[in-house]
Design brief:
It contains two helices and twelve strands; from the N terminus they run βββββαβββββββα. By secondary structure, it is an alpha+beta fold. It is globular, with a radius of gyration of 18 Å. Residues 49-60 have low confidence and may be disordered.
Length: 182
């Protein structure tokens, strides 16, 4: 294996990833990978009653949601322009959006905690906010890198470990990573 691999999604978009660790398990090859370029998320604020649309995002108590694909498509030109102001170039990569360039250093006032539907809390850097078609959007970069497991078959293209992979397999891969770290 090389130090990177390339994933391809069903739309034939690619994502170059760094291989952090290689794992052989039950005759199959797996890799813990991280996108080579910084990842970002485009989210929109859902209005809560009583929230003014012109308030600063940090003061908005509305919830953040993932926009529908057609909303993402409509917001992309504005998102690209906002990122270009930060010397970042938006890439529509496989499985996620990435940017080329160096993210600005996170500042205390642009760190946002986002709670998932499962109750997990992640910290993100708010890069920019904008309005498009009367919706408020934010561009967020995770402070912790995005990590994936990939299956790396001999003589075939690598692919992401499916979300419905057995919990037992995930547990064994994680145990193997812990063994390698010691």
């Amino acid at each position: 294996m090389s130090n990177t691999l390339q994933l391809r999604d069903d739309r034939q978009q690619t994502l170059v990833c760094e291989i952090l660790e290689e794992i052989a398990l039950d005759g199959k090859n797996y890799a813990l990978i991280m996108p080579a370029c910084p990842t970002i998320q485009l989210l929109n604020w859902e209005d809560d009653e009583g929230v003014e649309r012109d308030e600063a995002p940090a003061d908005v108590d509305g919830s953040l949601t993932e926009p529908e694909p057609e909303e993402v498509e409509a917001a992309l030109p504005v998102a690209r322009a906002m990122l270009e102001e930060l010397n970042l170039k938006l890439q529509l990569s496989a499985y996620t959006m990435t940017v080329e360039g160096n993210l600005p250093e996170p500042q205390e006032d642009n760190i946002v905690e986002i709670v998932s539907d499962e109750g997990d809390v992640e910290e993100f850097q708010l890069l920019a906010t904008f309005f498009n078609q009367d919706r408020q959007y934010g561009l967020f970069a995770p402070l912790d890198p995005l990590l994936f497991f990939a299956v790396v078959p001999d003589g075939a293209d690598p692919y992401l470990l499916p979300p419905d992979a057995p919990d037992e397999l995930l547990d064994r891969l994680q145990d193997r990573l812990l063994d390698l770290a010691q």
